[in-house]
């Protein structure tokens, strides 16, 4: 049906002399007919396209489509369209003074019409007359001119005879016809009434269906709302689970990091105790200069105790920030310090699990970045996840190369750089890399390349969401057996 609509629209535009529009619709009709193998009307479409191309003065495509029409009409035994196509080619070749082709198609058309048993052969005879005249065969031309005149005269006489017979109809016959017409009108009225009742019934049925569908949609919406609420709750639980999992991985690193400043505090406290005892002796001796020197040492040591105490305090606060639900409030943050802090915590966390593992990590921080406006605990989670994944890749490759007795130096490189109004953070490792077939999936929820029980598949998905929420981008570049590099870009403001 769609093909027929486009075919008829093409014919309408052709009659309106809008040949470009006509060609568009006929081409669409041809595509539809060929696609569904509905070849019945294909010959007519090609005939019309030939006419359009001829009007557009594209003779090559016109003849090509006429030939397509002949082939399709012959295959489908569509003799009427075949005759129309012969007529079009006869006119084209006759006007173009192509003697042989004009005569050839004129003969073919006459043979076709005779085989069809057509009464009106006047046009076929007339075409042969013109073709023979073009070929300068006068006798044959006169012969078919005469046949054309006879054929037209026969049709005229047949028309007169039919008119006379019509006038001879009796009054009763005419009356009978009028009665039949009246019955036909009454039948039409009944049919119209039945159609109106049927339409009303269909309308009521459709209204009932719409009402029923609306009720079902309302029920479905309620179910979807409940399901969505459950999914959101589950998502929140999974996110919190992932946060707690990363917190667990941080614990060992935090313990190691907090031990260093505590050792300094303890050591300097012990030294200060000894210095105070020494100062007491010097006071008893009245050696003021020595007392002052010891006091200066005490002041220096006290400053170092204060410094390392603040360091331990910062680590604890960082741990608390990481564990609690993010407030979503952005703060001006030193991204270099944040990146360095979580790098060391991640490394010591892995070392706590596997004492035999060692890796080198390098940093190249752009000091011109300054503070940027971010949610520090969220970006910290992203960095921690990337570091943990990188160290995991290093440990995995280190295990395989150790058994093969290959030289391998596991290394992570973290760089920051200011790019106009953005900050770029790169986390690069020389592990095994990510297989190309799964690169497009790594940011999908629950997808993980780690063995069962060693990964939730949420880390990179959450990282992706966090970076997007900050208006940034996160991408990965990887080569199998060579390593991976995650690239984060965050807006400065």
Residue fraction in strands: 5-15%
| Class from helix and strand fractions | alpha+beta
Q: Roughly how many Å apart are the termini? A: 59 Å
Low-confidence stretches: 159-171
What is the CA-atom radius of gyration, in angstroms? 47 Å
In N-to-C order, the SSE pattern is: HHHHHHHHHHEHEEHEEHEE
Mean pLDDT: 78
Compact summary:
With 493 residues, this protein is of the alpha+beta class. It is built from 13 helices and seven strands.
Observed structural traits:
7 strands; alpha+beta; about 500 residues; about 10% strand; 5-stranded mixed β-sheet
Task: Explain what you see.
- The chain is α+β, with helices and mostly antiparallel strands and 493 residues long.
- Helix content is 71%, strand content 9%.
- The chain has helices at 2-15, 19-35, 42-55, 59-76, 79-95, 99-116, 122-134, 138-167, 171-285, 288-323, 335-353, 376-403, 459-469, and strands spanning 331-334, 360-364, 371-374, 411-419, 422-429, 473-479, 483-491.
- The strands form 2 sheets. Strands 2-4-5-7-6 form a 5-stranded mixed β-sheet, covered by helices on one side. A two-stranded antiparallel sheet has the order 1-3.
- The longest helix has 115 residues, at 171-285.
- The protein starts with a helix and ends with a strand.
Summarize the SSE layout with pairings.
Layout: H1 2-15, H2 19-35, H3 42-55, H4 59-76, H5 79-95, H6 99-116, H7 122-134, H8 138-167, H9 171-285, H10 288-323, E1 331-334, H11 335-353, E2 360-364, E3 371-374, H12 376-403, E4 411-419, E5 422-429, H13 459-469, E6 473-479, E7 483-491
Helix pairs in contact: 1-2, 2-3, 3-4, 3-5, 4-5, 5-6, 5-7, 6-7, 7-8, 9-10, 9-11, 11-12, 12-13
């Amino acid at each position: 049906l769609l093909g027929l609509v486009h075919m008829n629209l093409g014919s309408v535009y052709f009659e309106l002399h809008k040949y470009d529009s006509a060609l568009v619709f006929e081409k669409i009709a041809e595509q539809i007919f060929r696609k569904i193998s509905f070849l019945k009307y294909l010959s007519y479409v090609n005939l019309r396209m030939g006419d359009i191309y001829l009007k557009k003065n594209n003779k090559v495509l016109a003849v090509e489509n006429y030939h397509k029409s002949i082939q399709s009409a012959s295959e489908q035994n569509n003799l009427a369209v075949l005759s129309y196509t012969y007529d079009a080619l006869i006119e084209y070749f006759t006007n173009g003074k192509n003697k042989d082709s004009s005569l050839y198609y004129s003969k073919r058309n006459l043979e076709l019409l005779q085989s069809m048993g057509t009464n009106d052969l006047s046009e076929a005879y007339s075409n042969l007359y013109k073709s023979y005249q073009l070929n300068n065969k006068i006798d044959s031309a006169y012969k078919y001119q005469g046949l054309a005149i006879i054929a037209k005269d026969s049709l005229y006489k047949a028309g007169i005879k039919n008119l006379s017979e019509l006038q001879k109809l009796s009054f009763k016959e005419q009356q009978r016809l009028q009665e039949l017409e009246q019955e036909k009108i009454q039948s039409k009225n009944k049919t119209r009434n039945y159609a109106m009742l049927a339409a009303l019934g269909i309308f009521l049925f459709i209204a009932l269906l719409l009402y029923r569908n609306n009720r079902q949609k309302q029920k479905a919406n309620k179910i979807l709302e409940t399901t969505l609420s459950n999914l959101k709750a589950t998502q929140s639980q999974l996110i919190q689970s992932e946060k707690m999992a990363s917190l667990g991985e941080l614990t060992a690193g935090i313990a190691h990091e907090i031990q260093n400043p505590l050792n300094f505090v303890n050591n300097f406290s012990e030294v200060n105790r000894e210095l105070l005892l020494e100062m007491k002796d010097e006071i008893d001796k009245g050696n003021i200069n020595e007392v002052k020197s010891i006091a200066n040492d005490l002041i220096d040591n006290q400053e170092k105790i204060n410094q390392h105490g603040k360091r331990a305090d910062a680590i604890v606060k960082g741990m608390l920030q990481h564990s609690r639900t993010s407030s979503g409030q952005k703060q001006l943050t030193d991204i270099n310090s944040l990146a360095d802090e979580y790098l060391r915590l991640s490394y010591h966390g892995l070392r706590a699990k596997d004492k035999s593992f060692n890796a080198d990590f390098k940093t190249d921080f752009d000091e011109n970045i300054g503070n940027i406006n971010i949610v520090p605990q969220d970006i910290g989670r992203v960095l921690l996840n990337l570091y943990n994944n990188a160290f995991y890749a290093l440990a995995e490759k280190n295990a395989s190369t150790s058994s093969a007795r290959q030289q391998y130096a596991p290394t992570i490189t973290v760089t920051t750089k200011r790019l106009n109004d953005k900050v770029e953070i790169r986390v690069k490792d020389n592990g095994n890399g990510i297989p190309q077939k799964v690169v497009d999936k790594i940011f999908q929820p629950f997808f993980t390349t780690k063995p069962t029980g060693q990964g939730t598949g949420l880390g990179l998905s959450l990282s992706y969401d966090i970076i997007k929420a900050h208006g940034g981008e996160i991408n990965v570049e990887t080569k199998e057996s060579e390593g991976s590099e995650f690239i984060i870009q965050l807006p400065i403001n």
